[in-house]
Design brief:
The structure is a single chain. The protein is an alpha+beta fold. Helix content is 19%, strand content 47%. It has a nine-stranded antiparallel beta sheet with strand order 4-3-2-1-9-8-7-6-5, with no helix packed on it. Strand 8 (117-121) and strand 9 form a beta hairpin.
């Protein structure tokens, strides 16, 4: 009977540890960077604002093709889009992010954190270029 109680306790502790580990991976597995980019579209030089969220994956998130993803919404057109693959070069304020479509992998744009500049090809074929700032900055 004692051996059965010890086995049940060991299984319970193991399951609780696995649940805690999974919670930690999901909860702390990403770092979000929110930015606002003001610029224009190349087709007619009309002004546009993109609200973007860069979701960086931590190194232990190994089951994806890239180092994160990008989501954006255009203020004037209402266009929303998701790019499943980003790659980061350098760290911190010198980071440069490249954005890719998936299947086939196709480069569509990038942002430089130091210069605060972004260029991206939108799904409708227009090219947006503009200056970005972190969302909490004026």
């Amino acid at each position: 009977m004692f051996a059965l109680k010890a086995l049940v306790r060991l299984i319970g502790i193991t399951l609780a540890s696995i649940a805690l580990l999974l919670f930690m991976v999901v909860q702390f597995g990403t770092n979000n960077i929110e930015m606002v980019c003001d610029g224009h579209l190349n087709s007619d030089e009309s002004s546009e604002t993109l609200f973007i969220t860069i979701e960086e994956y931590q190194p232990w998130i190994f089951w994806t093709d890239g180092q994160g993803s990008l989501q954006y919404q255009a203020k004037n057109s209402g266009l929303t889009y998701y790019l499943p693959i980003i790659e980061r070069v350098r760290e911190g304020h010198l980071a440069v992010y490249s954005f890719y479509e998936d299947n086939p992998r196709l480069y569509v744009g990038g942002v430089s954190m130091a210069a605060g500049a972004m260029a991206i090809t939108l799904p409708n074929g227009q090219i947006f270029s503009g200056e970005c700032r972190h969302r909490n900055q004026p």
